[in-house]
Design a protein that fits this description.
Strand content: 25-35%
Helix content: 40-55%
Structural class: alpha/beta
Distance between the termini: 19 Å
Largest sheet: 10 strands, mixed
Order of helices and strands: EHEHHEHEHEEHHEHEHEEEHE
Strand order of the largest sheet: 3-2-1-4-5-12-9-6-7-8
Number of strands: 12
Length: about 280
């Protein structure tokens, strides 16, 4: 398995925690790493006042320099961490126009088995990159929260409601489910009682394939579904939550489903999202 790590370094780059988290996850996945620093290539400003009053060209050069330096720093950290963990890691860097940074991450993600993205609360660059990769890559994406260490993947939780996107996510996570010693199939049944039967059916299919699995019906009782799913997964000791990514892009504005939006608003644990 090859894992892709897109590092968008402008405006708000990832913190250093991304290196430790992606290497730890790659180790659990048994994956090689390919990290790409996507740096800013800022177009020149032609307004004459920009030269004489603000020295915008110099500001642009400085912003591009900081972007490159941050990218080089993160790539170096990932290689060092990977070598210490006995993993193979390759790196590259490119520069693109600021409007294309997130889209470039999604396009490159299509050539790898899975994407690993660092996630920081309150970082709009990390959120835009995640949304664009989740809905534009056609590959599964694992979001790794900055402040939560990556644990073992012996126990995996799957959010299941019988929908197409849930099935897509479960299929993308099939190698992980097959290697897990235990799978919890989580279904929120407040508004969809049929989800209980769907979860039991899905868990039964895993059991027939030799995976220890159990259906766990949940009641959100007014709490955000994303919080209920993540808290339950954590309480049961799962190292990863698998769920479908609900939503679509409309004129570059993302319209997200409730559970997906909740995860992106408050990521508590590593979550594999697939659309």
């Amino acid at each position: 398995m090859e894992a892709f790590v897109p590092l968008v370094t402008y405006l708000d780059p990832n913190s250093d925690a991304v290196a430790a988290n992606v290497v730890a996850m790659a180790g659990h996945l048994g994956a090689t790493l390919h990290a790409l620093a996507i740096n800013a290539d800022i177009p020149p400003v032609s307004n004459a006042l920009s030269h004489f009053l603000l020295d915008v060209p110099e500001m642009i050069r400085e912003a591009e320099k900081l972007s490159r330096e941050r990218g080089d720093h993160l790539l170096t950290l990932i290689v060092e961490r990977a070598q210490a963990a006995g993993l193979t890691a390759s790196t590259n860097a490119i520069a693109v126009k600021p409007a294309l940074l997130a889209e470039t991450a999604a396009v490159h993600s299509r050539y790898h088995d899975i994407s690993l993205l660092g996630w920081e609360a309150g970082n709009p660059t990390s959120r835009l990159t995640a949304e664009t990769v989740i809905f534009g890559a056609g590959r599964p994406t694992v979001l790794l929260p900055e402040l939560s260490p990556v644990g073992a993947l012996e126990h995996v939780a799957v959010a299941w409601d019988g929908s197409r996107v849930a099935a897509r996510a479960a299929a993308d996570a099939a190698p992980l489910l097959a290697r897990a010693t235990r799978v919890s199939v989580l279904s929120v049944v407040d508004d969809k009682p049929s989800s209980r039967d769907a979860a039991e059916r899905f868990a039964g299919g895993l059991v027939r394939r030799g995976v220890e699995a159990a259906a766990i019906p949940l009641r959100a009782q007014g709490a955000p579904i994303a919080e209920t799913l993540q808290q339950t997964a954590l309480e049961r000791g799962a190292g990863l939550l698998v769920m479908g990514g609900y939503g679509h892009s409309r004129l570059r504005d993302f319209v997200l489903g409730g559970a997906t939006k909740g995860v992106l608003d408050d990521l508590l644990m590593p979550v594999l999202l697939s659309h």
